[in-house]
Structure formats: structure tokens, C-alpha cells
Specification:
The protein is built from three helices and two strands. The chain is of the alpha+beta class and about 80 residues long. It is elongated and about 65 Å long.
Length: about 80
């Protein structure tokens, strides 16, 4: 019984330490898109944004209420720098 309990504790602790697959996918997509993740504080509220160096005009992409900044990553690879 003790061995099973120790094994269960070992497995659960290792699973808790794992990074979610979705996060790994986001990191990969950010890297492929050439963006860097930044954060700014405005009036006490912290906001995250991504940017990529470019020579052309600035393009600002906004997401809706139920979305997130990473939803644009697949499109960014298609937009010329």
C-alpha cells in the first residue's frame, strides 16, 4: 500500500510540474512568427502585447473580448514585415 501511495505522489508531482502543451505551442508559434512578448503598465493595469521589428507601416491587431493576443500568431506569418 505504501508503494502505491508513493508511486501516486510521484506521478502527480511530475504531472503538476509539466508545462501544458498549449503553452509550448504558443512559444513555438511566437518564435516562428518572429514576435516578442512585452508588457506595459497603464494607469496601474498591466497589459501584454507582442511586436515584431519591421520597416513598413505599423499595423495594430486587436482581439475581441473572448479571445487573446495569441490568436493572431498564425496570421502574422502571412503578413509581410
Amino acid at each position: 500500500m505504501k508503494i502505491r501511495l508513493l508511486l501516486l505522489i510521484f506521478v502527480v508531482s511530475n504531472l503538476a510540474a509539466c508545462r501544458p502543451v498549449a503553452d509550448g505551442g504558443r512559444v513555438l508559434l511566437r518564435s516562428l512568427s518572429g514576435v516578442t512578448l512585452n508588457e506595459i503598465t497603464v494607469d496601474g493595469a498591466s497589459m501584454a502585447y507582442m511586436e515584431r521589428p519591421a520597416d513598413g507601416p505599423t499595423l495594430v491587431l486587436l482581439h475581441g473580448f473572448a479571445s487573446e493576443k495569441d490568436s493572431w500568431l498564425r496570421f502574422l506569418r502571412k503578413i509581410p514585415k
